Structures are given as C-alpha cells and as structure tokens.
Amino acid sequence: MATADGYDPAVWRQLSDDLSLPGIHLPEQYGGAGFGFVELCIVEEELGRALLCAPYFSTAVMAANAILNAGSDEQKSRLLPALASGKRLATLAIAEDAGDWNPSRIQLVATPADGGYRLRGAKSYVVDGRVADLMIVAARVAGPREGVVALFAADGDSPGIKRRLLESMDATRKIARIEFDDARAELLGDFDGGASALSRTLDQAAIALANEMVGGAQKVFESAVDYAKLRVQFGRTIGSFQAIKHKCADMLLEVELAKSAAYYAAQAAAIDDPQWPALASLAKASASDAYLHTAADCIQIHGGIGFTWDNDTHLWFKRAKSSEVFLGQPSYHRELLMQRWGV
User: Fold this and answer.
1) Which class would CATH give 91-192?
2) Does the reported pTM lie above 0.90?
C-alpha cells in the first residue's frame, strides 16, 4: 500500500499462476477456471478479510464482467484470456468528477472517427486506473445515436490518455483520475445492449463488494473479541465487562445479518433470479453499514492503541469508509432498492 502501484507483482503472479483467481468465474473457452459468480464472491470475501492490496476487484470483478456482459464473441475471445491469466490488468471507468455512480450522470463523450471512436472527457475515482493496461469506459455516444450510454475498450497507454493518482484516505485501494483527449477506443458489443450491460456489471460489482466487506467486517469483529479477552483493566479482562460484551454481541449480529444479505445476493445473481438486482442494492447497503460500524467499534474496544499506527485496525476502518462510498453510498442503494421493488 506504500507504493504508487498499490500491489506486489510477485503476489499477483501467485494469485494468477498458482491459483488462477483472476479468471475463476470466467468460462474455460476464454481462459478461465469455469466456476461461477458464487465462487468469485467467496474469493472476494477472503481478500476482504486479508485486506489484500491487489488489482483484483478492478480486473476480475469490474472489467472482466463488463466484457462478459457487453462484448461480442470475438471481443471476449480476444480480451478475456489475458485478464484471466493475470497478464493484463484492467479497470472499469464510470464515475466522473462529481463522484456519482448513477449511469444517467455520465458526461464523457465517444465520437465516431476512423472506423472506431474517440473519447473526450474525464473519469475520476477509477480503481487501479494508474496501472490498468486495459480500460473499459462508460461514455455517451455522439452522432447518429446521440446520448446513448455504451461501453468502450481503450488501451491504457493510448495517446490522449493521461492518468493521475489521487490522494485517498484508504491507501490499500488506489484510485486515479483519467483524462481522455481524443483517445482511441472500440465499442464493446452494440449500442442497444450498452446500458443494460453497464447496469448488470454495476449490480454484480455491488454484490462482490458486499462480500468483500463482510470478510473485512468478520476480521475486525474477531480482532475486537480477541483483544477484549487479552486486555486487562481493574484486575480483569475487559471482555468480562457487560458494556463490552453487549458491544461485541451487537457487532456479531450486524455482521451475520450482512453476511446473509451478501451470500443470498450472490446466489441469486448466479442463477439469474429476477430479484437479484434489488438484492444487490440490499447487500451493498447492509454490508456498508455493518463494516463501518464494526470497524469503528473495534477501534473503540482497542482503546488508545486502536487509534495509532502501532495497530492495523485503522487500515480496515479506512477500507470500510472507502467501500461505503464506492459504487454508491448506502442511501443511494436504499433508494435504488425501493425503486426496483416498485415503491
């Protein structure tokens, strides 16, 4: 996390070469392991527990799913194998300077040119945008299909692309601002499926993130309980005091409820249950609240040392806070949930 790239290449090679994790959910015909969305979420939960610094979410969850959802057969065959093997890093660029994850707010423009498209505008808060070899970009089309939202693939080193690492409270997940000045790109799939593919990708990402967050919440809960059993005050462990017992019980309840929502949403998405988009918002809102509350309570139980760099608890708290706003705040997802339920 102390590096600008935000990951250890040797560890990434282990994840890719030894465990085949970047392509765990991708079909074998595209170089993947052939498992499904549930298995992807299991991996995400463990990565959240370990607070692993790696471009996994951006590559395997966001970009790979965007290509699966929007790309033509030829594009999938050409783009996905390198992501599945970990040889290329990728990301999905949606939010702009306002930090809004609602696709209706996208302003970046894609203009037809030279048999492809040219992108003009900027994206911000792009996870692993500084190191991505491939960028999947959400843009509005200019020309005959004026205003239609679609997904485009651009080489990260293309002329006309400028990247700037952004300062963030959460050093474990790097974000960047990307400027596109007539950068060349190709349309993923067709115009008619672009908006639905983007919506599906965002819902899948919300579920995967929810599972990552419950992994982190479980970790900080266990850390709080372990410390409560260790720390002695007034001649007894602090875990024997009723106030600490009740706080730990409340933490357990909130984490288990969030787990239930995240697991159910993953299973529903895997079988394409008609309710799964609504469940994605439910899982994201629930996990965001549980992770942040549990991380804050963990710091409180640790007392003074919980606020210092001598203890790693603050790193999980910072990830909990950044994950709360990533892909939309809980209030945004609660409103989206109600809309999807017809309320």
Assistant:
1) mainly beta
2) yes
